[in-house]
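Example 3.2
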Amino acid sequence: GHEYGASPGRTLSNLFLMELPWERIEHALGHIHVMDVGCGSGNNAARLQAWSGGRLSSYLGFDVREHEIWSDLERRHAECRFVCADVVDISKHLSGDINFIMSQSAVEHFEDDIALFNEIRAFLDAKSKPAMQVHLFPSAVYMRLYPWHGVRQYTPRTVSLLSSSFNESSCTRLYRLGGLACNKVLRE
C-alpha cells in the first residue's frame, strides 16, 4: 500500500527504491556507502537499510536544514550520519567510501543543479571503483497536483541532458515512474 499522506510521486519513488536489486548492487559495488543528497528528515536511512536487507555499510544524509530526528536516527543506526550543509559544499563531504549517490525529490530545490552534477562527476571520475547514482525527479504530470515545487521543473529531455554529462565513463538508464493515471490511482 501507499503511505498515508505521501504523494503519488513519493510513493512510486519508494516502491522503485524498495525493488532495486540490492544483492546485485552489493555484488557490483562491494560494501554499499550511500550519500543521500537533500535527505530532509532522513527517513530514507532506515528505509534503505530495510529495503536492502541490511546491506548498507554506511549512510550519509546531506541537507541544507538540520532535522531534530537526525540525532535519534544516528543513535539507533550506527551506520547513519547526517551533515547540515548547502549543496554548494558537497565536495567537502564526498569521501572515498561513497559509492551510491542518491536524491529523492531534492534536485529541483538546488539553485545550481549543473554544478551539483559536475561535483559528483569529478568525484566519481577520480574513483577507481564502481559507483551508482539514483536521482528521482518529480515529473511534469506531478506538477498538476503539486504546483510550484522547487526552483525548476524537469522533463525527460532536461533530465537526459543532466545525465549526459556522465555518459563518457558510465552507463545511464532513465526510467519513467507512473504517468497521468498514477495521480488518480494512488490518491484513491
